[in-house]
Amino acid sequence: MNFKEELEKKTGEVEDILAAYLPKPEGFQSKVLEAMVYAVSAGGKRLRPLLMRESAVLFGETGEELPCFMAAIEFIHTYSLIHDDLPALDNDDYRRGRKTTHVVYGEDIAVIAGDGLLNYAYETALRAFRKAVTIEDYERIECAMHILGRKAGVYGMVGGQCADLLAEKPETEVTEEQLLYIHKNKTAALIQAAMTIGAVLAGADEEAVAQLERCAENIGVAFQIQDDILDVTSSLEVLGKPTGSDEKNHKLTYVAMHGLEESKRQVEALSEEAVGILKVFPHRNVFLENLVEQLIYREK
Ligand code: FPP
Ligand code: MG
Q1: Assessment of whether the complete model's pTM goes beyond 0.90
Q2: 3-state SS assignment for residue 242
Q3: pLDDT of residue 237
């Protein structure tokens, strides 16, 4: 199997996991459930669950509790996209090539669909405890829950989003330090959560988890700089979402600060370092190395 076929197969497996854990739209709340399912089913690269599973593979066996966390992290990612696209935030009408949730269901339902997904994510992750047998299983799941809550919350993605929103205000002078804080938290934190949760559940030790956390930070920052590059160089047709939105929102990006060429160089340096770290672990995972490179140099 070549990389593309393997990626399709593995993405299909993630889709099956998501389908198995998604709630069914029924009852008086069926509208919000429908909106949640709409947002999750819009496709997307399923990068975070994929990174989680492949990071677990680096440390050997993956247990039965992994799928609960794979679904949970994609639900959290999707909630963040629903809220990010709202008129009060980025006001985007398209995402993943489809109308955004608030355009289809209205702002009111989109807000609570995000809330619903966030809560449902933790409910789903908590199901992992039911698969635990030994005390060590319980400890690993507790650690994974902690990482998920921390990295998705105010000391991670939400914190990064806050700094990003403030940075967009025309009166704010953004420093490089703030910009890096934004990238490390808004984008990299959830990628760190994905990779370190995979490792923790597969029994990695503290030092290995710390190394993987650094690797994921590089991937996240490179991914975000690439996102900013594509916002300047790509199109709605290729990207599935409007380009030029950073300029529209007066957003200071790495590209605006350092120019396209330097940004591309930075993406390359970060990715090289990240892949270098991946090669030190007990099991080589060539698919993961390829995935990281492909992600960083993606066209959409
Ligand atoms: C695209 O991911 C998403 C990012 C680059 C991260 C942006 C971060 C936010 C919007 C955080 C918002 C936070 C809050 C609290 C609202 P992707 O390319 O993996 O998208 P895909 O899943 O569609 O492929
Ligand atoms: Mg946005």
Answers
A1: yes
A2: coil
A3: 78
